[in-house]
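[audit] Reproducing an earlier prediction to check determinism. Same input, same settings, fresh worker. If the tokens differ from the archived copy the diff job will pick it up downstream; this log only records the rerun itself.
[audit] input (136 residues):
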Amino acid sequence: MDYSEIADAIVDGDKSRYREWLAQEAGDLALRIANFDLISPLAVLPLARISAYGEADIEQLAEGCGMDPADLQYHLAALSEFGFVEESDSGFDVTPLGMRAFIAIGRNMIIRERYELKRRFEALDRVFRKMNAHAQ
């Protein structure tokens, strides 16, 4: 299955709120996946890239995640320590546990975005109906 759209949405999400969102998702996920609460929420960014696009080295991940290589190395070390990614000949690759975490995050993200879009649509619809009532 192609997970690139999910990874891109996680990595390229609204920068003004993605740190808050990632922190919430990481906290929720920590209840279901052991040790997930011990890594930074920003570690989700390289996890998403590796899960969707396959093995990658530091330079590829830094560019794809928009992160400083030193910060990225810190997050990859934590992901490796707790079994979400592993070092490979080409850099880093996702483990089954890491893929489970990525899919759970992606699923939660889609649920959250759908809810927010529905709320926004309902608010716009109320305004539209009021405008139509006053126009007549």
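[audit] rerun output stored. Observation attached for the diff report: The radius of gyration is 18 Å.
[audit] end
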